[in-house]
């Protein structure tokens, strides 16, 4: 977007977290949350393995803890707030 700096420290981190959320969302929508474990690990596996409130449930289905949902809501709110401030 014109005039919006996504490369700044906080915006970059927030955008990265939203991008990870999108990967989780796509896995849930398109694969019913099931993850095929691979070697080397896939991008979705890296997101799950690096996020403490995500994990694997029965039959490698994504397990999401409430803390991930709360954290994601906070991330989106902060991102939108920063986006709004930059747009002014």
Automatic annotation (TrEMBL):
Top-level taxonomic group: Bacteria
Protein name: RiboL-PSP-HEPN domain-containing protein
Annotated source species: Modicisalibacter xianhensis
